[in-house]
Amino acid sequence: MKLSGGRIDAFLKRPDASVCAVLIYGPNAGLVSERADALAQKIADPKDPFQVSELVGAALQKDPRRLADEAAAMSLTGARRLVRVRGAGDGQVQLFRALLEDGPAAAFLLVEAGDLGPRSSLRGLFEGQPQAAALPCYGDEGRALEELIAATLSGARLTLDEDARDHLLAYLGEDRILIRNELEKLIIYLGADAAGRSRASGSGPVTLEEVAACIGDSARLSLEEIASAVGEGDGNALERSLARAFREGIGAVPVLRAAARHLVRLHLVTGEIAAGRDEKAAIDALKPRVFFKAAPAFRRQLRHWDPARLAEAIELLTRAEIECKTTGLPAQAVCGHALMRIAGGGRAP
User: Is the pTM of this model over 0.70?
Assistant: First the structure.
């Protein structure tokens, strides 16, 4: 059974009694972990070692009987047991297939995996079995991200002004764990807490300046450096920032999307200028506004690009993201090649 949209939240709140095995997968590792934790708590007590058995996908290759043995074991307390497998992949599909085709096991099977394409045998297995379910976890975007931000901040009785909200929507990224960590850091920075004590700077909505002072380091800063290096046409800076981002565990797709967001903003402004609008007015019209520290570089990049070349670059990034998801080629290599090509086109004369 394949679940999507609102059916996922409904299932996590009240799992279908006929389902005894669930695969939670996707590029958003934080959301995969968060949803797996939520489902695990519905099945068993995660802190009880007699109810929960945790396995690693790669280790099952060396001990293939371990999965079946754990799934068949009965709980000493009489409660339903949970077998949780982390880091699973297509390499273990035959083990899961044998278990599911034998019929419902004594324990509930919860499997976590990374990004699985439409042709994934593991994903196909869980989607095709009536007693199993597959839950995808993609990036928090658009309305979903806005709701997550609002829900997290409302616990500390904080609201955002329009510019601060737009800035968070543009720069928080897509990984659920990173998003929550950044929002919690913002709450602490502002001196607010769950009891509703107001921040040190006073009451009223959180401003763009307050958000920018706190949000934007670590992963977000790496992505901004990459996007700026692409726009500047600085291949050396791009190579350094890409290597650092990949070491930090940032995926190729978030990198491509960060660069695309930046180029889209440049494209919007260059288009307005080509139509006769004043440069300052075109820049000021952007939402979210260009952060003041990045404004000089942004204006400089406008002089290196024209709308037609930016459109070609954005199309190249779109094709690169599709290749990362569908071709099986090394995603980091695809990403780096595309960005270097674009940076070459944006180099100052």
Answer: no
